[in-house]
């Protein structure tokens, strides 16, 4: 163990000696310019009962007149459009808000060039992820009902009771910049 600590110590010294530093702001959101643009692709929706549907999806991200805020407009199949505002809360901690402009505001966490979000609506819990990688945004939403978890484990065990929420729908899209 002592040998490993010494090795880590020397790596840190080497980074300091060469002037390489790690800034939280650089690792969190230095690449917002990469996100700005019009992105489109096909949204593949699959349900646990075997149903499947594909719709066109477009995500438009653009600057606003307010520093630290961006327009975040999502369109599904040319019929349903969601006009949101992405707001900076604390970029050092990866904290952002997605304001739906209708009294609904969702927390977003940004890490490793991806936005993560979990929320519940109409007795369903949803997890979403937008990940920018290799010039594409990989979008995913996973949905599960909150009203009927499967409970396992024992209260007397180290982990206690565990609630599992069976996934009933997955939505995925790979969006390419236009």
Descriptive key words:
178 residues; alpha+beta; Lipocalin; ten-stranded antiparallel β-barrel; two-stranded antiparallel sheet; 12 strands; 56% strand; disordered N terminus
Assign the CATH topology. Answer: Lipocalin
Largest sheet: 10 strands, antiparallel, barrel
Give start-end ranges of low-pLDDT stretches. 1-30
- Say which CATH homologous superfamily is assigned: Calycin beta-barrel core domain
Query: What is the helix fraction of residues, given as a range?
Result: 10-25%
> What is the C-alpha radius of gyration, as a whole number of Å?
20 Å
User: Distance N terminus to C terminus?
Assistant: 51 Å
- Helix vs. strand class: alpha+beta
Write down the overall mean pLDDT. 85
Number of DSSP strand runs = 12
Written as H for each helix and E for each strand, in order along the chain, the element string is HHHEEEEEEEEEEEE
CATH architecture assignment name: Beta Barrel
Globally, the shape reads: globular
- Just give the CATH class: Mainly Beta
- In DSSP terms (H or I, runs of 4 or more residues), the helix count works out at 3
| Strand residue content | over 45%
What's the quaternary structure here? single chain
How many structural units, i.e. domains? 1
In short:
The protein has helices at 2-18, 24-29, 32-35, and strands spanning 37-47, 52-63, 69-76, 80-90, 95-99, 105-111, 114-121, 124-133, 136-145, 150-153, 161-164, 169-177. Helices cover 15% and strands 56% of the residues.
């Amino acid at each position: 163990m002592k040998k490993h600590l010494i090795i880590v110590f020397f790596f840190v010294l080497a980074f300091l000696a060469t002037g390489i530093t790690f800034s939280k702001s650089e690792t969190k959101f230095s690449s917002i310019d990469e996100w700005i643009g019009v992105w489109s692709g096909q949204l593949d929706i699959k349900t646990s009962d075997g149903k499947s549907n594909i719709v066109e999806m477009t995500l438009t991200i653009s600057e606003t007149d307010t520093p630290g805020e961006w327009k975040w407009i999502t369109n599904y199949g040319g019929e349903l459009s969601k006009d949101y505002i992405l707001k900076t809360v604390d970029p050092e901690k990866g904290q952002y808000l997605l304001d739906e402009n209708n009294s609904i505001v969702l927390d977003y966490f940004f890490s490793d060039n991806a936005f993560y979000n979990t929320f519940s609506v109409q007795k369903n819990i949803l997890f979403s992820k937008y990940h920018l990688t290799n010039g594409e945004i990989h979008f995913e939403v996973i949905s599960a009902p909150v009203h009927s978890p499967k409970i396992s484990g024992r209260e007397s065990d180290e982990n206690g009771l565990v609630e599992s929420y069976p996934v009933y729908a997955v939505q995925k899209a790979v969006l390419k910049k236009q």
